[in-house]
Amino acid sequence: MVRRGGSGLLDGETVEFVEARTEQAAQEVADALGIEAGEDVVLRRRRYLDAAGVSVVSTTWVTAALAEHLPAFTQPEKLPKMSMGYIEDQTGRKATRQRATHSVGAVPEDIAVQLGVEAGTPALKVTNRYLDQDGEPTEYAVDWHAPGRSWVEESSVD
Q1: Nearest to 25 by CA among 137, 148, 131
Q2: Of the residues 4, 6, 26, 128, which has the fewest C-beta atoms closer than 10 A?
Q3: Is 140 in contact with 60 (CB distance < 8 Å)?
Q4: Nearest of 139, 137, 138, 103 to residue 122 by alpha carbon
């Protein structure tokens, strides 16, 4: 959608910057980015809102080395082409593969506050791992969807 000129937002949806920071990679993030647990990564967190309230809390991680080439990644503004397009524009690393995993999990405490639910509430968790044209990871994202929402996906079947 972003490559075709879309904004990455659904009709009536807005995005709110929550935070950006450097932290040590947890094992899940390290495995997804192809680094060792405990290495520095940079996270960017946003909330997506619509008429019914917060729909998704989304966190994206990149390696600290990649973040050095992404000055806007830690700024409190919407990225011009979402993170995937921004990484491509800044580095030439084009995401060519995506692995999405959908599961139901217990909302962690730090996300629960942003999502407006109690920690431990079951919710849809969607993880996305993107690989560039050389098969190297560019980013890892975890989206927690608000309970009671529907996942709707529409695509061509040709």
Answers
A1: 137
A2: 4
A3: yes
A4: 103
Under 8 Å CB-to-CB from 89, ≥6 apart: which residues?
A: 80, 81
Contact 44, 60 (CB under 8 A): yes
Structure tokens at 57: 């809390």
pLDDT digits (tens, 9 = 90+) for 14-60: 889 999 999 999 999 999 999 999 999 999 999 999 999 999 999 99
SS3 2: coil
The number of beta carbons lying within 10 Å of the beta carbon of residue 30 is: 19
Rounded to an integer, what distance in angstroms lies between the CA atom of residue 33 and that of residue 42? 11
Global pTM? 0.89
Distance of alpha carbon 103 from alpha carbon 99, whole angstroms: 13
Residue 128 CA to residue 102 CA, distance in Å, equals 9
